[in-house]
Structure formats: structure tokens, C-alpha cells
Design goal:
Length: 259
């Protein structure tokens, strides 16, 4: 309120000039705070009505207090809605995309900085498509510091199964959906580490490779989504749970605040 009053005073009561004044003030504050760290904020998601496309983004600010501010939350939701509808190629393209008529995302960010007085940043976003098969399901953990998009298909209740899978991804942070997606360099590193540990423990040379292979299998069970124990029923793997529900998972996107 005080900022708006000052803007109107400085502009002689001219509303349009007052808006320009606030924008310029936002730019000045932005320049002053450019070296500040914006580690707080929100993870937001959005999915098209038919579930064919989903978007996830991280919108940052400096303090948790601002992250809980209703105006900042509305701004974050406006950004993710724009990402879903316009599907920009990258952050630079998003900055120049119109959020409202005559106002780009970059301009809107500057105005938010002017109003709130903290560094505001649209750090990253990702767009996931169902590629004509199945649907995208979203999940945002309470507090909006962690969010997941899951791509799955099948004849079961994909909304319910997808939410369970998204919660699994949120809780267990898998590296890949299936083991063939784990790059060879990561596998080789795990095998070599296992070999070195076996040697340091004095294991016989003729069983070292077998031990390393077993360790790699353990690595897959811990880090590959479909091979992990299902968090809601540890007697099942995720793959077994999916089979019971006539569904399959094809990929995920996981954003953790600041990660």
C-alpha cells in the first residue's frame, strides 16, 4: 500500500506513470539484490485436462515467509499455467513470453521484486508429454517444496496408481525408471567400487566379480523405480504393484526445492 501511494505521489496521481514507477523501482531492487541467494520458494505443477501434457517448475524467493505469501503463490501458479499453455523451449524463451497482455514474464518478475522486496527467480521448468499413450499424473508434497510428474499407461485407474507412483518417486528419489536407463558409466563405477571394497576386505579373487555383480543388483533395487520396494506395501516391488493394477510407468520428473 505504501509503495503504491509513493508511486502515485511521485507520478502526480497519474496511474499509468505510477505503474511505470513501480516497474522501474522493481528493476532497481532487482539489480541491488542480484547477488543475493534465492533458495526458498515453491515447486508448482500443472497438467492438461486430458492428462496428455504436464509441466513442473521451481519459482524461487529468498525467505520461507515470502514463499507462503498469497501473492507469490498466485504468481507461481500463473507461471506454471503459462508454461503448460505456451510450452516455451527454455528459460530464456519463457522470460520473453507474455504473461498478460503487454507484460512479459521478465517484466512480471521485476514487478514482483518491487512489491515484495526480495529476489524472485523462475529457476527452471520441465514439460512432460504422454506421447499419445496413457497420461501424466502430478503430485506436490505438502509445503510445495517437492513435486513430481509421472508418465504412465494401462487400463487400470491411472490417476490413483499414478499418484502412488509419484509419491514413491518423491519419497525414494530413484535415479531411473528402469534399469536399462542407468547409464553404463554409473554401472561401471558401482561395480568397481564393489570390487575395491571386496579386495580391501580380503575376499578371494575368484569371488570378487560375483560379489560386485550382487552389489550392482542391490544398487538397481535401491535406485531403479520399478525395482524398488513399494513404499505403501514393502512386500511388493513397484513393478509388481503396477502389474496388479494393469499399469506401466514410462518416466518421471522430480523437482526438489534447491536440488
Amino acid at each position: 500500500m505504501m509503495d503504491c501511494k509513493k508511486a502515485l505521489t511521485e507520478s502526480g496521481g497519474d496511474f499509468e506513470a505510477a505503474v511505470d514507477f513501480l516497474r522501474k523501482t522493481g528493476q532497481k531492487i532487482s539489480a541491488k539484490r542480484s547477488d543475493r541467494e534465492a533458495k526458498e520458494g515453491l515447486i508448482v505443477t500443472a497438467v492438461t485436462e486430458d492428462g496428455s501434457v504436464g509441466a513442473i517448475a521451481e519459482i524461487n524467493c529468498e525467505t520461507d515467509f515470502v514463499a507462503r505469501n498469497g501473492e507469490f503463490q498466485t504468481f507461481a501458479n500463473d507461471i506454471i499455467t503459462l508454461v503448460l499453455s505456451e510450452r516455451p523451449a527454455d528459460i530464456d524463451a519463457l522470460r520473453t513470453t507474455s504473461l498478460t497482455p503487454g507484460k512479459t514474464v521478465e517484466t512480471a518478475v521485476e514487478e514482483m521484486i518491487g512489491k515484495i522486496g526480495e529476489k524472485i527467480e523462475v529457476r527452471r521448468f520441465s514439460i512432460v508429454t504422454a506421447d499419445g499413450v496413457g497420461k501424466i499424473v502430478e503430485y506436490v508434497h505438502p509445503g510445495s517444496r517437492l513435486g513430481v510428474l509421472v508418465r504412465l499407461s494401462g487400463n487400470g485407474n491411472l490417476e490413483s496408481v499414478g499418484r502412488d507412483i509419484a509419491m514413491q518417486v518423491a519419497a525414494m528419489s530413484p535415479l531411473a525408471t528402469k534399469r536399462d536407463e542407468v547409464d553404463s558409466s554409473t554401472q561401471e563405477k558401482e561395480v568397481e567400487i564393489a570390487r575395491e571394497v571386496a579386495r580391501s576386505e580380503g575376499k578371494p579373487d575368484h569371488i570378487i566379480d560375483r560379489i560386485a555383480t550382487g552389489k550392482l543388483e542391490r544398487f538397481f533395487k535401491d535406485n531403479v523405480l520399478v525395482e524398488q520396494a513399494f513404499v505403501k506395501d514393502a512386500s511388493l516391488t513397484v513393478k509388481e504393484m503396477l502389474k496388479q493394477n494393469d499399469a506401466d510407468v514410462h518416466g518421471f520428473e522430480r523437482f526438489g526445492l534447491g536440488a
